[in-house]
Amino acid sequence: PPPPAPAPLRGCPPGPGPLLPPLCAPACGVPPAWAARLGATGFLISKCCFPLFKAKPGKAKRVRTIFSSEQLARLEQEFSRQQYLVGQERCLLASSLRLTEEQVKVWFQNRRIKWRKQSLEQQQAKLAKMGLGTPQR
Questions:
Q1: Running DSSP on this structure, what letter comes out for residue 11?
Q2: In a domain, 120, yes or no
Q3: Does 22 map to a domain?
Q4: Number of structural domains, the chain?
Q5: How does DSSP assign 71-113, residue by residue?
Q6: What's 91's domain CATH number?
Q7: Has residue 25 been placed in a domain?
Q8: Which residues bind DNA (predicted)?
């Protein structure tokens, strides 16, 4: 009987293999230190050796939203009025800015984190001026 076909390398997709052998060991061991530098020069680097290069199955990577200055000004204005937007308010703001509700929701979440960080830094600065040191979290 013919010898059994070799098992695909760990992390490599099944199917026809690359035209050139990968730079790493056949068992997908640790690639040599110089292998990462060769990627930019056109040498073949097997994806099985570099898990960072592999795309995750399922969800596609979300594209980062770039807000216009007008959108940011309005979002900041609404945030200064109230730090939480829910339901109809978020829906109306999103539609008026031509954004999705999810984009508005995430912007407000991130802005609240930034606000808390700024507030904590201001509080620490006041305590430092008074000579009381930094507060414990």
A1: T
A2: yes
A3: no
A4: 1
A5: HHHHHHHHHHH-S---HHHHHHHHHHHT--HHHHHHHHHHHHH
A6: 1.10.10.60
A7: no
A8: 60-119
E strand or H helix at 124, and its extent? helix 101-129
Residue 47 belongs to a domain: no
On whether the pTM is more than 0.85, the answer is no
pLDDT digits (tens, 9 = 90+) for 18-69: 444 444 445 555 555 544 544 444 444 444 444 555 556 777 887 888 999 9
pLDDT in tens, 76-112: 999 999 999 888 999 999 999 999 999 999 999 999 9
CA distance 136 to 100: 39
Phi, psi of 23 (to 5 degrees): -75, -15
Residue 63 tokens read as: 């594209």
| Neighbour-count burial for 67-95, b at 16+ CB within 10 Å, e otherwise | eeeebeebbeebbeeeeebeeeebeebbe
